[in-house]
Amino acid sequence: MSLADTWRNLPLPDRALAVAAILLAFAATRVALRGSAWWCGGRGGRLPLPPGPWCLPVVGYLPFLDPRAPHRSLAELAARWRAEGVLGVWLGSVYAVVVTDPRLVREALSREEFAGRAPLYLTHGIMKGHGIICAEGERWKTSRRFASSFLKTLGMVRFPGPRRDALERRIMVAVKECIQGFQEQMEGKEHGDESVGVGLNPLPELLHGIGNLMSDLVFGKTWSRHDQTWKWLQSLQEEGTKLIGVAGPLNFLPFLRFIPYYKKTMDYLMEGKLKTHDLYRKFILEHLESKDLPEGNDMSGMTGIKEEEFEGMDISDEEAIHSKRRGAKDAIDAYVTQNFAGKQDGEYEDYSEDSRQLANDTQLHHLLADLFGAGLDTTLATLRWFLLFVGVHPLVQNKIQEELDNVLGRESLRRPVSMCDSGSLPYLEATISETQRIRPVVPLGIPHGALKDTTLGGYRIPRGSMIVPLQWVLHNDESTWGPKAEKVFDPTRFLDEDGNFNCRKFQSFMPFQSGRRVCVGEELAHMLLLLFGASILHEFRLSLAGDLATDDVLEGESGITLTPKPHRLVFRRRFPFNPEERRIE
Fold first, then answer.
1. What is the pTM of this model?
2. What is the sign of the dihedral through the CA atoms of 330, 333, 339 and 343?
3. CA contacts within 13 A on the Cβ side of 455
4. Most buried residue, 111, 278, 382, 473, by CB count within 10 Å?
5. Domains in the chain with CATH codes
6. What is the pLDDT of residue 257?
7. Which residues contact 146 (CB under 8 A, 6 or more apart)?
8. Which residues does 160 contact at the CB level (< 8 Å), separation at least 6?
C-alpha cells in the first residue's frame, strides 16, 4: 500500500496527528539542515554530493517509490545518472546513496568505513543493533567470527571430508522428506476428485523441508509437519518477511509507528519477536540442562568425536577445530560450549547464574534469529524461483534432466546426488546462477551504512548515509547481460566455450554480495540449492499449472526478499515409484 493509499484510508483524527507530526519533523529538519554541511552542497571547494532528484521536505523521494516494486523505481531513477554509477536521494530522514556501477559496489563493500549498518528503524529501533545482520563494530565482528566458525564446524566447507559428508547427510534427510511430501500430494490428487493438472503449491513442502533443516542446525530441534508451534513459527517467518520491507516507510519515518495502521504492524512484529525469544530461551535452557560439563579445560566429555577423524582434514580455522572437538551439533550447542570453555576448576560454582544469564542473552536471541531466518528466507526464495523458472522453460529442464541422468543414472539404477557431483553438473549450476541473476532475492541489496565522512566515485558521502548496492540493476543491466535481460532466462551465460560452469566472469554478478560483509552462509546456501534442486528435478517433471499468466507470476512480490507470486506446479514422476523411498533415515 502506497503512502497515498494509506492517507486515504486514515480516519480524520489520525490524519490530524500525522499532519502535526510531519510539520514538527519538517521544522526540525529545516533547523538541522541550515546548520549542517548538507546545506552547503559542493561549495567552498568541497567534493559534491552524488547527483540525484529533487525531493520533498520530510518524506523525500518516498512517495515516488512503488511500494510493490521499490527496486524498479530506484532502477528507473538510476538510469538517469547511469554514467556516474551512483546517485543520492533522500528517503524520509535517511540519505541514501544508490550504487549501480559494479566496480564502485565492490569498492564500497570492501571498505571498512562502509561496513556499518544503514540507519533504518528496523536496524536501530527494533533490533537495537543486535544479532549479526543489524550489528556493526565489535559486536558484528564477534558474531560473524562465531557464525563462520560454527558453520565450518557443521561442514560448510568447499572440499570433501568427514565434516561436509556429515552435513550433506543431514541435508539429504530433509530432501528425501520433501520429495516424499510432493509424491504423496500428487498421489492424493490421482486417487481423489482433484485433477493432477491442478498441481500443488510447492511452498509448504519447501518451507517445511528447509525450515526444519535450519531449525535442526541452529536450535537442535526438528518438528513434525503438524506441530502447532512449528506452524506458528512458519507463519510468523512468512508474514514477517512481507511486513519488514527494506523500503517500507516506517524505516525512514519512525514517527509513523504512532499511526494506527503502522502501529498494528509494529505490534505484530514486536509481539512475534518477544514470543520467539521466549522459545529460544527454552531451547537454550534445554541445551544447558543436557550439557555434562567437564572439569576444568578438559572438553573431551562433550565430544563424541574420535581424534583420528581430524587426521588429514583440511582445516585452516583453529577455532573451528576446537569447536569440532567439543562436538557442537547446532548453533546453541556451539555457543554454550564456547561460553563455558576455558573455565578453571572451581569456576562452575555460579553455573546456575551463568546459565540464567546465557538463556536471557538478548544478543544470542537475535543471533539465533538471524542464523535461522536469513538461512531460511533467502534459500527458500531462490529455490522457489529456480523450480518456477525451470517449470516454465521446458527446454532448460530437458537439458538439466539429461545431465542428471548421465551423472546419477536412470530408473532403478539411479543414485542420490552428492556435492562431489557438482563439477559434473555444469548446466544445473549455471541454471541456479541464472536464477539468482534474473530474480535476485534481495533486489535492493543488503544496505550498508557509512561509519564516517568519506568519498566514493569522486563524490562526498556523509557519515550516516545508507549505501544501497542496487542488485536489481547489477543483475539486469542490458549493457552487461544483453537485451531484455530481466525477461530472458539463459543459463548458458554462465558456461564457457568448453561448457564448463563459470560464474566469476561477470563482475556485476553478486548474489551473496561481496567484501567485508559477504554472506557468511554462502557455501551452505550452495549446498542446499544444489542438493534440493538436483534431487527434485531428477525425480519429477515440472510444469506450471492452470492458466496463470507467466509474466505476472514471474514478476514477484517484494518484502524483505523478492518472492514468486502464488502459483502451482505439476509434479510428475519421471521413474516408477520405489516403496523403499518411503523410508526416511
1. 0.86
2. negative
3. 7
4. 473
5. 141-338+359-582 (1.10.630.10)
6. 86
7. 334, 335, 338, 367
8. 419, 420
